[in-house]
Specification:
Methylamine Dehydrogenase, Chain H; 1002 residues; single chain; five-stranded mixed sheet; alpha+beta
Length: 1002
């Protein structure tokens, strides 16, 4: 109980100014208010300055807010919630009071209840029972006597005719409704104007009554709503249940007052309101409502469940698109994306015009142990598919380049410290598509050519000698792979296996304790993936002669010369086609192996068939624009050279072109980045049904790379722009765009330390420093946010597709369409099988007839006639002096011309039959974005380079055909035609007829 006497002011909600026992003043800063959930003007207001806070939080923050002396009282406070009040008349202040005991809390609660009751009595006058002050006996009219004449009398006005005066009158009462003029209408003066106060009608729930604006949103509320509160749009979330009974009785339930502030309702008032409600609603109405509700749920249970699930995921009364666009940054971000500054500053430019004239960069490889050294491969512009993606590039005369002899491909080794000239020149007559340094032996460079061969160089001490002498050294390749056992098409990707594991010739992985493995895999356009081993030694049992045995023994060294022209893959994987009936192979554009975690957990293969399944997985990017996840089993004992892979899953056709890059993030091993056409996408390696994030750009994309910062990657475009994407800041647009070239950028490469390299179309390589200013996000915070983003998006996609699959299984329309497609496919297969069977029967009948005709014996006359014809031919040739061989040689051009004509006619018929396919291929070249809908259910789209080469070959064939046609027409015009006389022919015929007739008569 309070020590000092006080008088409670029932007209003020603020804490009493008198000192009350166990009500302690305290100062709370803004940070402390946020921690205790008692923020001024958000949780506590001047209109009602009281709120409940958790006892545990106040106990933990006792030292911080200056309540160390009262820590024992706070600990002895049994209920979970403590009452706190705002002790200031200002809008923003730090003065508060805290009730440390239950008695003090009950005193304040009862005080607030009295204040509320007093206000209610002033605002709402309740109807009370009439109390009579006189006697309640009924007084009869005949007993009423007017004893006091001083009381006022009723005045009655009676209108009579003069003829009725003096006559007896009979009066009776009547109602005013029964007469025409029984009511009098009271009207105010016409010049009196009322001062009405209009209220604003708001058609949308808003915090303030601002000026209305026409705006498009997802949904429209069909009924107007008046809202006159000034605070939260949504009810506060319940943070816990109150276990104290007294607090439940006094402050458990809240109701909205006319001023918009929450107040406590006692249990007695709650009982009164419940009794009144029970009187209004009878028992019969309750039963009827229950029955109608039960019938409604029985009829519309499925639809109601779907609506509830849908509304729980989507807010129908808000603009989701705008909310996503203006959503706040994550909690770990202390600055907004506009405050982050990205700068890309050019450091050096690597180009040698005497060597790279008319060439373009195909691939770049950083030295693993020398960050300043870099190897760059140069090829002709016609061999790079990315060049053809941009239609406004200048035309190149390839025949002139071949005539000048300036087409030899090469690899230049540069140093960023000395960018004026290259250090080494690696010569080779074959064009290099990809190259890579060996991680465990950094002096070895492995390159993949357009012919499908693997080329090896060993630099050894060449770099050190070049730095000492200052001269440019030219190095020839140490070894080339066997062309018969290599890839059949260009190699598109090279990836090294970890040095701690090895792939055996059986297709199984094994651990190596000394980390001496030097194996790598290559992906080619021929639809195969090959595994190579630099430690491979020739088989001593294969050579038979003594010379071969001696040469094989001499080649058992660590030098790469031993592999020249005999190096071949020890294991090969073949990618099956998308359609089982198709005879073509899938063209692989890029390859992504399993993560390092999968290889680090490799165990020596045992009898368990599922051992090392994650390591035996590859993600492939195809020309058709899909990601294919493949796996293989291998053999237990038998050694095999190749194996058909099993397709685990395929992605959707999200890209509008071939997937030219597929990269795995170094920060999150299960995240993939792909580009194809004008679209880039982020995937999760175990969920390829739909990308987690994808964006379409205005121009075609040429390359992409993950940055050394989590969640940051670089994308290059065909118009020369370099985009920097930071999904921790923005997901709708790049955070930085910079022009690095006037034409397309062929590739981008990232080195640890913030160095970024971009390949120019003219053969130059630009090195930039990527700077990120005003970024207070540390490395761990970025990784944590990136992981949460990936997991959230993946869970959301899975949940949606799970719901979609369940819906399509039960939807009658979808099931009917699926059954119709299955029936149509079955009918088509039956027709194809029937046509195939009929063709086979016709072919068998033809062969049977030919064999039957050959078995018929020829007559002697026929045999004699054939022999005479052969003898006559030989005699005529001898008399004329002709040789059959020379005649065949002279006749061969005409025969060849006829064959070519037949081939051209066949090609023309095929073109006419496949005119739709050629039209789609032309769209791919001219309008890549217009072919997004043609990828489903059609033949695979060829690469841009193949289409261009095919068009070039067609133009050459047409040119040669026109030349031969002109030559033939000239010969026909100048040839001497024999003179034909009809009379002579008829006379000769009559003479022969007469001769035969005479012979028959004889």
């Amino acid at each position: 109980m309070p020590k000092n006497s006080y008088s409670l002011k029932l007209s003020n909600w603020s804490p009493p100014p008198e000192q009350i026992e166990d009500i302690i003043p305290v100062k709370l800063s803004i940070e402390n208010q946020i921690k205790l959930n008692c923020i001024v003007n958000e949780d506590i207001f001047l209109e009602y300055p009281w709120a409940y806070i958790r006892r545990e939080k106040l106990f933990d923050m006792a030292a911080e807010v200056g309540l160390d002396f009262y820590k024992s009282k706070i600990e002895g406070y049994k209920p979970e919630w403590m009452l706190i009040g705002y002790a200031s008349a200002e809008l923003a202040s730090t003065h508060f009071v805290v009730c440390l005991t239950e008695s003090a809390r009950d005193l304040i609660v009862s005080r607030n209840h009295k204040i509320k009751k007093n206000i209610d009595n002033k605002v709402l006058r309740m109807m009370e029972k009439f109390q009579s002050l006189a006697d309640k006996k009924i007084i009869k009219p005949e007993n009423v006597k007017c004893t006091d004449l001083s009381e006022p009398l009723f005045e009655i006005e009676i209108n009579l005719r003069t003829s009725n005066l003096g006559k007896p009158r009979q009066l009776s009462s009547r109602k005013c409704e029964d007469t025409r003029d029984g009511c009098i209408e009271l009207l105010l003066p016409p010049n009196l104007a009322f001062g009405n106060v209009p209220m604003k009608l708001i058609t949308k729930s808003l915090q303030t009554t601002q000026q209305s604006i026409s705006k498009e949103i997802q949904t429209y509320l069909g009924y107007p709503k008046n809202k006159w509160t000034n605070y939260d749009l949504f009810p506060p979330e319940e943070t816990g249940e109150v276990d104290e009974p007294s607090v439940k009785q006094l402050a458990a339930r809240e109701e909205s007052s006319p001023t918009g502030h929450s107040e406590t309702v006692t249990a007695s008032e709650e009982k009164i309101s419940s009794k009144q409600h029970q009187k209004d609603v009878t028992d019969e109405q309750v039963v009827m409502q229950r029955e109608s509700l039960k019938r409604f749920f029985q009829t519309y249970l499925d639809e109601t469940t779907d609506c509830v699930r849908y509304n729980s995921e989507i807010n129908m009364h808000s603009d989701d698109i705008e909310n996503l666009a203006t959503i706040m940054q994550p909690e770990c971000a202390h600055e907004t994306a506009e405050m982050i500054n990205y700068f890309i500053i050019e450091k050096c430019f690597l180009v040698d015009l005497s060597i790279v004239n008319g060439k373009v960069i195909s691939d770049v490889a950083w030295h693993p142990n020398r960050p300043g050294s870099i190897a760059i491969s140069y090829v002709r512009r016609s061999t790079v598919d990315l060049i053809d993606l941009c239609g406004d590039q200048p035309q190149v005369n390839y025949e002139e380049e071949l005539r000048l002899g300036d087409n030899q491909a090469c690899i230049l080794v540069w140093s960023i410290c000395d960018p004026l000239k290259p250090k080494l020149v690696l010569e080779n007559c074959r064009e290099i598509q990809v190259l890579s340094f060996c991680p465990s032996r950094d002096s070895v460079i492995v390159a993949g050519s357009t012919t499908g061969q693997v080329i090896l160089w060993d630099l050894k001490k060449a770099l050190d000698l070049t730095e000492e002498n200052g001269n440019i050294a030219r190095i020839q390749p140490e070894a080339l792979s066997d062309p018969n056992n290599s890839h059949q098409c260009a190699i598109r990707g090279i990836h090294w296996l970890p040095s701690s594991c090895r792939l055996e010739s059986t297709g199984k992985f094994s651990k190596i304790p000394d980390n001496m493995s030097m194996q790598f895999m290559t992906a080619s356009e021929d639809g195969t993936v090959a595994f190579w081993d630099l430690l491979w030694q020739p088989d001593m049992q294969t050579p038979k002669s003594l010379i071969n045995i001696v040469s094989a023994k001499m080649s058992l060294t660590d030098d790469l010369d031993r592999l020249d022209n005999i190096f071949h893959p020890h294991y090969r994987l073949i990618l099956p086609p998308n359609n089982k009936e198709a005879s073509y192979l899938m063209m692989i554009v890029d390859l992504c192996p399993a993560s390092e975690d999968a290889y680090s957990h490799i165990q020596s293969d045992t009898g368990d068939p599922g051992c090392n399944d994650f390591a035996r997985r590859l993600w492939l990017g195809t020309v058709q624009g899909e990601i294919v996840l493949i796996s293989w089993r291998g053999q237990e004992i038998d050694e095999i050279s190749q194996e058909n892979t099993e397709v685990v899953t395929r992605s959707g056709f999200m890209h509008d072109g071939p997937i030219i890059r597929i990269l795995r993030s170094s920060h999150l091993p299960d995240v993939l980045l792909t580009i194809g056409g004008s679209i880039f996408a982020i995937w999760k390696d175990n969920f390829l049904r739909r990308p987690l994030l994808w964006r379409k750009r205005k121009s075609m994309l040429t390359s992409c790379r993950w940055s050394d910062k989590p969640g940051v990657f670089l994308v290059t475009r065909s118009d020369g722009e370099l985009e920097t994407w930071d999904i921790c800041r923005k997901t709708r647009e790049p955070v930085h765009v910079q022009t690095t070239s006037g034409t397309l950028v062929a590739g981008v490469y990232v080195l640890e330390g913030g160095l970024v390299g971009a390949c120019d179309y003219n053969g130059g390589f630009r090195v930039f420093d990527q700077l990120l200013l005003n970024d207070n996000l540390d490395y761990c915070a970025r990784i944590e946010w990136f992981r949460k983003f990936i997991d959230r998006e993946a869970d959301r996609k899975r949940e949606f597709y799970r719901w979609q699959d369940d819906y399509l299984k039960c939807d009658k329309t979808a099931v009917a369409r699926k059954e119709a497609r299955v029936a149509e496919e079955t009918k088509r297969r039956h027709e194809e099988a029937r046509e195939k069977f009929l063709k086979e029967q016709q072919e068998q009948a033809r062969l049977k007839a030919e064999r039957r005709a050959m078995r018929i014996p020829k007559s002697k006359e026929t045999i004699l006639k054939n022999k005479n014809i052969e003898r006559m031919q030989s005699i005529l040739l001898e008399k004329k002096g002709f040789s059959p061989k020379k005649l065949d040689e002279k006749k061969s051009p005409i025969v060849k011309q006829q064959e070519e004509k037949m081939i051209r006619m066949i090609k023309a018929r095929e073109k006419v039959a496949n005119q739709d396919g050629y039209f789609e291929q032309a769209l791919v070249v001219e309008f890549p974005g217009a072919t997004a809908g043609y990828t489903h259910g059609h033949e695979p789209i060829k690469s841009t380079a193949d289409v261009v080469f095919e068009l070039m070959s067609i133009s050459k064939d047409e040119q040669s055909y026109s030349e031969v046609r002109g030559w033939a027409l000239t010969m026909l015009d100048n040839a001497e035609m024999p003179k034909f006389e009809w009379d002579r022919v008829m006379a000769e015929a009559r003479r022969r007829r007469d001769t035969l007739r005479n012979m028959s008569l004889l």
